[in-house]
Write a structure and sequence with these properties.
Blueprint lengths: L3 E3 L2 H9 L4 E3 L6 E3 L5 H11 L8 E3 L15 H10 L4 E6 L14 E5 L4 H10 L3 E2 L14 H8 L5 E3 L11 E4 L6 E4 L5 H8 L3 E2 L23 E5 L8 E8 L9 E6 L3 H17 L4 E5 L6 H13 L2
Parallel strand pairs: 1-8, 2-8, 4-6, 5-9, 10-11, 12-15, 13-14, 13-15
Antiparallel strand pairs: 2-3, 4-7, 5-6, 9-10
Helix pairs in contact: 1-4, 7-8
The structure holds adenosine monophosphate and magnesium ion.
The site of adenosine monophosphate has 19 residues, from β6 and β10.
Length: 315
């Protein structure tokens, strides 16, 4: 299959409306979308990515008014979050509408919805004029794509169209909040911090990110975000062993940078999160064998960054 590239959101939306798969940028990472009401097209998302069928998709909407097409109701906590954080990198888990094809939610009785903030994503969703389920546009297990080139690398020839935008802003995925529990539960830490959710809602639970605990968010069960290189977590840069095919990424610089094949020093947690998946992919292109990645203080965006680092390091 030839993969069309375009910078036109209208052209990309034409592909989607014909039942095709379209990758598009958002403020978090690139997504791979289909028309929510064409179950065959949605099934092809799972095939193209090699995504386990038990991992539900987040439905992307242009505006809040479309929620009624995919969700049965909006609990009060969800409305509060919508008023505060939406559009933005926050996914709300709501009771599913009966009309939404079950392939979208992997047979769950709930649905994840998100309204992206990126103008190009909004133009695309506006032109689609239908809810768009979209997981990250990478082969399952690989680092999420933060550029259209990364999408093409993973899915070129397997999808119909790539809407070309710039590098994505956040670089980590949306925060997933289950609004069907009381209090609400963070199922996946992400670009919206738990602290800011607590400022808005008061009490918020955080689901265990322990891979052995029975996770309520099916996707967090699978190995994720991993480059081909082995990822080793370090607290201190001195833990990085010398080697030509060794790389280091972190906030603090190692003493002997010339003893490593590549060294990436990040200015702060924001740029670290923004750059991480890109660095993973560059390391793979350069056949790096081990990436030493420094963990950060687990507050704010640091919680999401550590989560991605831990999952990338899991074997
Ligand atoms: P991805 O789009 O690849 O970043 O993954 C979407 C994430 O949202 C995964 O961790 C999914 O398991 C989670 N998710 C989507 N829909 C639901 C749902 N209805 N209930 C719980 N988690 C969900
Ligand atoms: Mg993903």
């Amino acid at each position: 299959m030839a993969t069309t590239r375009t910078t036109s959101p209208t052209e990309a939306a034409h592909h989607l409306r014909r039942g095709n798969l379209v990758a598009f940028p958002t403020e978090t990472v690139y997504g791979l979308g289909a028309d929510a009401f064409r179950p065959d097209a949605v099934r092809r998302i799972f095939e193209a990515k090699g995504r386990p069928a038990d991992n539900p998709l987040i439905v992307h909407l242009r505006r809040q008014e479309q929620i009624g097409q995919v969700a049965a109701r909006i609990p009060p906590v969800a409305q509060h979050l919508l008023d505060t954080f939406v559009p933005g990198p926050l996914t709300l888990i709501l009771p599913k509408h009966d009309n939404l094809p079950s392939v979208v939610t992997a047979d769950l009785e709930t649905v994840g919805i998100r309204v992206p903030r990126l103008p190009l994503a909004q133009s695309f969703l506006e032109a689609c004029d239908t809810p768009v389920p979209a997981p990250s546009a990478n082969r399952s297990g690989r680092p999420s794509p933060t550029s259209w080139e990364a999408v093409e690398h993973d899915l070129g020839g397997r999808i119909d169209c790539i809407l070309q935008g710039g590098r994505t802003d956040a670089g980590v995925e949306s925060t997933v909040v289950d609004c069907t529990t009381d209090p609400a539960t963070v199922l996946r830490p992400g670009a919206v911090s738990v602290e800011s959710l607590r400022r808005t809602l008061g009490e918020v639970q955080v689901a265990s990110s322990d891979a052995d605990a029975a996770p309520r968010s099916p996707g967090t069960r699978h190995r994720h975000y991993a480059p081909s290189a082995q990822v080793q977590l370090v607290e201190d840069p001195s833990e990085a062993a010398s080697g030509d095919r060794h790389a280091y990424v972190g906030l603090d610089a190692p003493a002997h940078t010339d003893a490593l094949g590549a060294v990436y020093i990040e200015e702060d947690v924001r740029t670290y999160a923004h750059d991480l998946f890109h660095i993973f992919r560059v390391c793979d292109e350069n056949e790096v064998e081990v990436i030493y990645a420094q963990t950060v203080s687990p507050t704010g965006l640091g919680r999401a960054l550590n989560d991605r680092l831990r999952r990338a390091a899991a074997r």
